[in-house]
Amino acid sequence: MTLTVEQFPKDFLWGGAVAANQLEGAYNADGKGWSVQDVTPQGGFGPITDEPTEDNMKLVGIDFYNRYKEDIKLFAEMGFKTFRTSIAWSRIFPNGDEVEPNEAGLKFYDDLFDELLKYNIEPLVTLSHYETPLHLAKEYDGWVNRKMIGFYENYVRTVFTRYKGKVKYWLTFNEINSILHAPFMSGGIATAPEKLTQKDLYQAVHHELVASALATKIGHEIMPEAQIGCMVLAMPTYPLTPNPDDVIAVMEAERKNYFFSDVHVRGTYPGYMKRFFRENAIELDFGPEDEELLTNTVDFISFSYYMSSTETADESKREAGKGNILGGIPNPYLEASEWGWQIDPKGLRIVLNDFWDRYQKPLFIVENGLGANDELIIDENGNKTVNDDYRIDYLNDHLVQVGEALKDGVEVMGYTTWGCIDLVSASTAELKKRYGFIYVDRHDDGTGTLERYKKKSFSWYKEVIETNGTSLVEK
């Protein structure tokens, strides 16, 4: 049956999401400096090279830097209300520690945002999306170093001032909690993971949290009309059994993620983290104004959602699920994608309700999607396309659960599917792991025309937006 009740608010922000480093390409054009992404040719969890190498697919991406106008026109054809992208920090400050910005980089994003606004598409901009300037990683060890707060402050003041009036919605750090699992990709930390102490790791977390709060404070001062949110990687966790020890294991696993949103929303460190620091002999260095800065809390909570996991206290059963960035144990009741990500639409309703019950802050789903090895075909009309019914089913089922959460009383601002146009995978640097409504003719061996083709899901999502979700099918 189709949804007959107008569940989605009339001002619901439908759209899609990308990251600069995964689609822009032009890695050294117009004065851009290198970022951490330019030296990870096998993805964020792979080896780090001394300098960019030709086998890094992100150096070209899908050439969005030169083709953004044709891509935005396609987004407008689908009816996007918003488009989430990021600013490549090293386009604005090539090394990250300069005093003056790179004008060519600033102009590119001026032009990009103007193009979006031409079609009445609201930009939703991530300030730091796994794109720490490489110089800051090599010279300062990334966010382990407190100097990063000042470099970030200079960057955000620059872009807030430049794009005031053009960008209303901002996110401070992408999936900020992922720094615990991918310290180089997420935090620009050059120290090898096996040598990185817990003290240094959580000191880096503290610096990011302070910087995020400072950005929120500055943003509200420069752009009183703007809304600034945090962004976390959400993955609901279920106990493997009803054993109370498994339930405690779930509580402890979820607190590692709630910690980040708790600080962003409540403006202080929660008691359970203070206990964790005591029991692990971690003494964080606080600056004299840090506690006060942390009270600059966010306007909304945004998050990515791809999968759920299970937890247990039984070490003999702790086999991490394939592809699960945050670890966890595969759920025997769920199917998985080609990349081992377990598919759990109802988990999205659970996440939305859990966040709402905990915070009563507006929520924004800014990443959700299915990575698959799409096959380009020629249809009966002679057009190249992809029959991606599996993606339509995935997105439909997740959006139905968003509708359920709205009926539960959860306030949801919008939904942006991840990789609305095919791009390079963050975790594996593959192009064959495709998410988009638009197929890009580029392949992992570097071949392809870069031509764009509409997939079957393109017209499906267009109808979802046109009907404000009433075309979704409950199964």
CATH topology: TIM Barrel
CATH class: Alpha Beta
Largest sheet: 8 strands, parallel, barrel
What's the total number of strands? 14
Q: Tell me the fraction of residues in β-strands, as a range.
A: 5-15%
Helicity level = 25-40%
Run of helices and strands: EHHEHHEHHEHHEEHHHEEHEEEHEEEH
Protein name: 6-phospho-beta-glucosidase
Keywords: Glycosidase, Hydrolase
InterPro entries: GH, GH_1_N_CS, Glyco_hydro_1, Glyco_hydro_1_AS
EC number: 3.2.1.86
Features:
TIM Barrel; two-stranded parallel sheet; EC 3.2.1.86; 6-phospho-beta-glucosidase activity; 14 helices; hydrolase; alpha/beta
Q: How would you describe this structure to a colleague?
A:
By secondary structure, this protein is α/β, with parallel strands linked by helices. It has a single domain, classed as TIM Barrel (Alpha-Beta Barrel), CATH 3.20.20.80. The chain is built from 14 helices and 14 strands. The chain has helices at 20-23, 64-78, 89-92, 103-118, 134-140, 147-163, 183-187, 198-222, 244-266, 271-279, 290-293, 345-359, 389-407, 456-466, and strands spanning 13-17, 82-86, 122-128, 169-173, 227-234, 237-239, 300-305, 309-311, 363-367, 377-378, 384-385, 412-418, 438-440, 452-454. An eight-stranded parallel beta barrel has the order 1-2-3-4-5-7-9-12, surrounded by five helices. A hairpin with a 5-residue loop joins strand 10 (377-378) and strand 11. Helix 2 (64-78) packs parallel to helix 4, helix 6 runs parallel beside helix 8 (198-222) and helix 12 (345-359) runs parallel beside helix 13. The longest helix is centred in the middle third of the chain and has 25 residues, at 198-222. The protein is globular. It starts with 12 loop residues before the first strand and ends in a 9-residue tail after the last helix. The model has no long low-confidence stretch (mean pLDDT 95). The active site is at residue 367. Pfam families: Glyco_hydro_1. Keywords: Glycosidase, Hydrolase.
